[in-house]
Amino acid sequence: MKRLAPWLAAGLGLGVALWIFWPGYMSWDSAYQWWQARHDRFDSVHPPLMAMIWQLSDRVVEGPGGMFALQAALLWSALAMFAAALPVRPAWRFAIVLGLGFWPPLFALLPHVWKDLWTLAGFAWALALLAHDLRAPHRGWRAGALIAITFACAFRHNALTGALPLLAWIGWREAVAARWLPTRRRLGATVVFTVALMSTVMILSGLPNFDARVRHTEKVWSVVTLWDAAAVSLAEGALVYPPELVDPTLTLDELRGKFVDFSNTSVFETGKLRHSFDAPYMPAQRDALDALAWSLPRDHAPAYFAHRWRLTQLLLGWDRAGLPDGLVLMPGLHQYQDNPPVPPQTSVLHARMLAMLQSLVDTPLFAGWIYLLLCVGVMAAAAAKRVRTAATGAANVAVIFAAAVAASSLAYALPLTLASGSAEFRYLAWPVLAALAALILIATAGVLASPLRMPSPSVPPLHR
Question: For residue 117, which of 163, 164, 151 has the smallest C-alpha distance?
Fold first, then answer.
């Protein structure tokens, strides 16, 4: 019965989530991916795996409900799996599952049928499996984590940066497991294994794009570069676009009327910026976009980095009042073209829960910088603990893993400050969970070395 504690908590949490939020929420991009699933037409702008899964779930439950149930089940079960690996009492495992699952930012994001939630679930499963590898080292756990990481990266183009620290951790564990490998060569072997794992994840996560039904879009980052150029143009008082990428009738005043600093979508309402989503680029346009992307930080550095700094402030919650609440939570069911209408959740309980969560949007709970600062603190604490702990101790290995999870959070979030085209909070779903999990891991690391709780203070041999 004690072993069931985290799973009972997960079942309770899943039931509550489905009861309150069914059938989930659909923003524009969610509704568009449902439309793709219904019409058997996919594109590489939105990684097609989500729409392909939606095709299958639609056969059982039409609309967002099936996808909501799947993503919620994946996340809650991952939390249970993670808690089950922790060296704490069953009551604590029960509490950890509910604490993480009902953590306001994560619980508020959960009903949204977004690829970000599927990426979150994939990374959460990798976290859970690698946590089990701490207690009972075995290549099977690490192989499962590799599959989960690949799954996570198949839903978001940028997830590879967050995967790198976890893949490096797996690479190091494999280097330690290779008993034939001299100790002095483990660092080099870790690098080789990490590169091999990263290459594997990149290849496998991109396989759905090779389906014959997928329309390929090149230069998907064109919408970000063109938005960056709009910010630079407004700051410098002159358009910086090459003629290949803009309608010659575009004026600075017209651009100013459509520009906002928290999202790139509105500048394209002019209909005069030529991005790659609408039609394939000609060779001259590809060259012009590449040249523009390089010229912005090089030739227009003050304006470009001021724009990026402003986005960072909004994305990480330093100016929560400046970010519209609609970029944090998007409750509702967007209607897209011929998608069937979906009845919304109208219960009083849902209304009260949504109101409570929305009231927290402008609080520090939704400030991404706090979670990133927490990760920095975990890594600093890990470095300090490692100095004080025997190099072969189980607690020391757990501390290093906590640092790897914290590094994954940072590696996922920080590149967004230069690459993101929006300050939407959903981009920080994994960094938030990773920060909390890293804190739990480092807090429980000392228990691994306690003979009262664990049968041995030493690290068991890594099974091949």
Answer: 151
The H or E element containing residue 42 is strand 42-43
Q: What length is written for the chain?
A: 464
List helix spans (H) across 85-114. Answer: 90-101, 104-109
CA contacts within 13 A on the Cβ side of 51: 26
The beta strand positions in 147-258, using DSSP E, are: 214-215
Helix (H, G, I), strand (E, B) or coil at 14: helix
| 368 touches 400 (CB < 8 A) | no
Q: What is the CA radius of gyration of the chain?
A: 23
pLDDT over 90 for what percent of the chain?
85
DSSP state of 425: G
φ, ψ (nearest 5 deg) of residue 212: -65, -20
pLDDT at 457 over 80: no
Predicted pLDDT at 177: 85
SS3 content of the chain, % helix, strand, coil (to 5): 70, 5, 30
Angle 205-206-209 from CA coordinates, rounded to 5°: 135
Answer with the residue of higher pLDDT: 397 or 315: 315
SS3 218: coil
246 strand-pairing partners: 273
N-to-C CA span, the chain: 31
If phi > 0 it is left, if psi is from -120 to 50 it is alpha, else beta; for residue 317 that is left
Please, which pLDDT band fits residue 458 given cuts at 50, 70 and 90? very low
Q: What are phi and psi of 43, to 5 degrees?
A: -140, 160
Distance (Å, whole) CA 100 – CA 92? 12
Name the amino acid, one letter, at 369: W
Spell out the residues 6+ positions from residue 18 whose beta carbon is closer than 8 angstroms to its own.
Answer: 68, 69, 72
Are the C-beta atoms of residues 141 and 85 closer than 8 Å to each other?
no
Distances (CA, A) of 434 to 79, 275, 393: 11, 34, 23
What gap in Å lies between CA 253 and CA 237, rounded to an integer?
10
Q: The whole model's pTM is what?
A: 0.93
Close Cβ partners of 308 (under 8 Å, ≥ 6 residues apart): 228, 417, 418
Q: What average pLDDT score do residues 57-82 get?
A: 98
